[in-house]
Specification:
The complex is a heterodimer.
Chain A lengths: L4 E3 L2 E5 L4 E6 L7 E7 L6 E6 L5 E4 L2 E6 L4 E6 L8 E8 L8 E2 L3 E6 L1
Parallel strand pairs in A: 2-11
Antiparallel strand pairs in A: 1-3, 3-8, 4-5, 4-9, 6-7, 7-8, 9-10, 9-11
Chain B lengths: L4 E3 L2 E4 L5 E6 L6 E7 L6 E7 L2 E4 L8 E4 L6 E5 L8 E8 L7 E2 L3 E5 L1
Parallel strand pairs in B: 2-11
Antiparallel strand pairs in B: 1-3, 3-8, 4-5, 4-9, 5-6, 7-8, 9-10, 9-11
Classes of the chains: A mainly beta, B mainly beta.
């Protein structure tokens, strides 16, 4: 994998559903994986920075896991709420750079009340 | 502590004009990054600056684009003689150290007529 890929591209769920989406990234010379939450017309908001294989991070109802050997990360949202509606971006630091974020195109989550 | 401030939020230019985009990093942050999002694309790295120094401009087009981060004042991304293909959202981020989490501004949307 040369690029950062996110799937699905978009997702519609009902309030209360739990959901998850995937980020695939280059596993060679891996440094870190960042997750951001981005609401329209606002700044992307940092959720997690993950560096170690097997890392799990949690913030409220949102959690993420990291597999650096196979190059993927999952983001989970438990009991989705309408305010969770946003684009979720992942970005990797790899290829020897510890500052040049390579972003996926994001997963657009819409939570219907 | 104010976040990363970008202005203007929207900028309209005619072909051939100059565009100046400003970014004030978070207080205490001396590392600034510029990213560009073209339509239907993910955020792409352009340039990384520290105070008075360009560290990495590998993502920036070689012609017409320049960036600076002076000792005093905001970082400036300057695009000379804009063309329609420069229409995009330009995001600035800052961090305390190069390897730390990057905090983003809300972006400047440039439209070239």
């Amino acid at each position: 994998i040369l690029n950062v890929e996110q799937s699905p591209q978009s997702l519609h769920v009902q309030e209360g559903d739990s959901t998850n989406f995937t980020c695939s990234f280059p596993s060679s010379n891996f440094y870190a994986l960042h997750w951001y939450r981005w609401e329209t017309a606002k700044s992307p908001e940092a959720l997690f920075v993950m560096t170690l294989n097997g890392d799990e991070k949690k913030k409220g109802r949102i959690s993420a896991t990291l597999n650096t050997k196979e190059g993927y990360s999952y983001l989970y949202i438990k009991g989705s709420q309408p305010e969770d509606s946003a684009t979720y971006l992942c970005a990797s630091l790899s290829g020897g750079s510890n500052y040049k974020l390579t972003f996926g195109k994001g997963t657009l989550l819409t939570v219907n009340p | 502590n104010a976040g990363v401030m970008q202005n203007p939020r929207h900028l309209v230019r005619r072909r051939g004009q100059e565009a100046r985009l400003r970014c004030s990093p978070m207080k205490g942050h001396s590392h600034v990054y510029w990213y560009r999002q073209l339509p239907e694309e993910g955020l792409k790295f352009m340039v990384y600056l520290q105070k008075e120094n360009i560290i990495d401009e590998s993502g920036m087009p070689k012609e017409r684009f320049s960036a600076e981060f002076p000792k005093e004042g905001p970082s400036i991304l300057r695009i000379q003689q804009v063309v329609r293909g420069d229409s995009a959202a330009y995001f600035c981020a800052s961090s305390e150290l190069a390897k730390n989490i990057q905090y983003f501004g809300a972006g400047t949307r440039l439209s070239v007529l």
